[in-house]
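Q: For a teaching session next week I want to show students how multiple molecules come together into a single three-dimensional assembly. I've collected the sequence lines for a complex. Could you give me the predicted structure tokens for the whole thing so I can convert them for display?
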Amino acid sequence: MTDRFAPPPARGCSATPVLKERGQHEVFCGLTGIIWLHRKMQDAFFLVVGSRTCAHLLQSAAGVMIFAEPRFATAILEETDLAGLADAQQELDRVVRELLERRPDIKQLFLVGSCPSEVIKLDLANAAERMSAEFAPHVRVLNYSGSGIETTFTQGEDACLAAMVPVLPRSEARELLLVGALPDVVEEQAVGLLEAMGIGPIRVLPAPNREAEYGLGPGTVYALTQPFLTDTHEALSRRGARHISAPFPFGEEGTTAWLWAIAQEFGVSPKTFHAVTEKPRARARKAVAQAAETLNGKSVFLFPDSQLEIPLARFLTRECGMTAIEVGAPFIHRAVMQADLDLLCEGPTIAEGQDVDKQLDRCRAASPDLTVCGLGLANPLEAEGLTTKWAIELVFTPVHFYEQAGDLAGLFSRPIRRRALLDHEGAV
Amino acid sequence: MKLTVWTYEGPPHVGAMRVATAMKGLHYVLHAPQGDTYADLLFTMIERRNHRPPVTYTTFQARDLGADTGNLFKSACLEAYARHQPEAMIVGASCTAELIQDDPGGMSETLGLPVPVIPLELPSYQRKENFGADETFYRITRALAKPMARSDRVTANLLGPTGLGFRHRDDITEVTGLLMEMGIEVNVTAPYGASPSDIARMGHAHFNVLMYPETGEAAARWMEKELGQPYTKTVPIGVGATRAFVAEVAELAGVAPRLDDSRLRSPWYSASVDSTYLTGKRVFLFGDGTHVAACARLARDEMGFEVVGLGCYNREQARLLRGVARDFGVEALITDDYLEVERCIEELAPELILGTQMERHIGKRLGIPCAVISAPVHVQDFPARYSPQMGIEGANVIFDTWVHPLVMGLEEHLLTMFREDFEFHDEAGASHHGGKAKPRPETGGQPPVPPGGIEEEKKQATAIEIVWLPAAEKELRKIPFFVRGKARRNTELFAGERGVSEISVDTLYEAKAHYAR
Ligand code: SF4
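A: Of course. Below is the structure for the complete assembly, covering every listed component.
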């Protein structure tokens, strides 16, 4: 089903020795995921138990104070909470009670651990159990950690989804579960394509609200839509569900391979598969080709950020004609990354973890045509003359599946086109 | 434990970063987990800085906690020194590192670094960003500045401007110009643009100009005491304050007061007939204490507004603001809870808010125009053009900025005259804001309910005593939106005072006549 693409490389990157770095990381912590998770789960509230720093991170990551009263907040620990853990638990009860009184629309509450709550060993699992008992059945209280000492950026979503897996009821039904908090428009496209092939029923994790929840069991097969969902992957396996391994659905090739893996699982004929995917594939190809004109033959350097780096490098090299110089990821989990590593041509340095100053040195030395990096690095690198794409946008904008393949390529080509357009005289 | 959604101030180490990032040749080693590196983007994105903040984060992880976070800190210090070769370093802990008690200050002493290493103690669970900046600048000054001979010519230091400050970049230029006109040179501006060696020669100056008490007062006090340098108390925001500042400087420097006001336009703009409509506009001010205090006087004395309420989010300035509030016959709101600010604004129903980005959002929700006068900042608060708040040009800029969100004078008349006209209705907004006129909804009924149901709560609160009869409610809606809040409030007050529980069209107009000025 990947007939339109170059054959997989004889030797992909899966055997390439990985450069493991252990120095200063320039990556957000897992709390950041709350910014998109709270929009996706409409009856959920995310209560971070942390410090002023955590509140400030959320505010800064949200960019502006857009929502009057969003469904997240931080319970900021104060001096007195640090003095006694028993009192801190009582305080937390008070805060939660007040919150739930004020927001009767909340049906699930996530207590989100932070570095400070973990360092003082404030037991949020215990608190969640206690509160679940108090507020059941109206409100379900779960906990997970988004702390920077345990999680990077997108791992927060992973931890959140993993926390939801054990509370789903048991079911023997044969169902397909799509895992990952995608923008609605993207999710609907995927579901539409799969249903058109006769696959169903299709569930998504996270469900938009508690009413839409379903059961799990050995009949469940699941496909990950995001490469950072490793704990969720393991939690689902523990419930007896089976993983459909595939490259991630970025670009035409990734989407086709991902859909085809699911189609095979459900015994869809190649003919049906073609009939359903032909048109969107053609559209994706056309859209990618436009952006690829700019990207073709250019080099790219990816800093570790969202965990999307390896699948994106695969997309940029195989579909857009780019050469990857370095592909950094915060961590590399083979079980979910294998298919993408296999497709990624040998050549780039594959780096795990980070030592940001050293990586910047390598990046400057390589002088790539495009650098994909976090918000803290983008403008400084632009000022040094490098062209950058800030990675957080890849998580905040719809980039999956066929109809977004062109947009995805466009995110990378735009900075290059812009630099070519502008007279850079005196820009810095 | 305090439930918080949006905060006016970050943690104190962000304040330290504002000092470090504003300076040159200084490096900050911050013992902190990786997520705390988000703070870099405040500087690189909001302020569009073209350099990374000079901060090394140790980014310790959970697995390091049992082992040796101390060594991690030490090697981070050594590597940061080797790579950046700073003239001086500051070291400290973020909120998480404070809990693991590694003592960055003590550890850094043992490293034998060949430059001054200044330890910071910033209590993350008690204090906030402004304190962090003030304390950091004070510590740096204390460590590096020494008493020395005064410069031959009369010079002054400018104290307080930092990274992420509200218009600090342009205020420096403006204040430097003010001093120059009096023949006074700037010795050092700090922290903004200063290196540790500049800090060391601050003692040359004859006196200090404290531009921003929020971030410079501790250093100014110390320098007054230890270096014998008096400092200015007037913040030159507004024409009156600028003149007072010039007088104060002249006195401190022993020179003749001189102010070139040939570029000053705001007093005439304010006096010209088109500005008549500004008279008695009810304004509410909120922000940091310094800006609010200065802007309140400006609002009353130079714009002819009526200040109906004011407040600040930084407790450090509570005393100052209470004093100002007394002077205005209002109560000062001292809080860092934006919900409380929102409730207060709703209650007072001002016609204009002068606030921070936070109040801008509150204003959007309540349909009240807002101009920004203070940090916390947003990318919009770093305009490409020159736009100071201080001095002569600052006064001009402020006039434009504050008037902009209000409906222009003539347009206001037209709105009143043609208030039944489909294009001139209130939801159309001010025409100069580029929004397309939206046709008035057919029924004229439901006003848009802001999210969060604030409107609902309000109705419930007032419903107990006073009810608006449908006809009166409809009439109220015909009143242009920028005075509707006032009309509603006055009418309810009028009715309440007279024990009237139902507001009819008559009550509305009786109240209007009663309050007519
Ligand atoms: S890294 Fe830790 S302390 Fe910092 S914002 Fe994230 S959870 Fe909070």
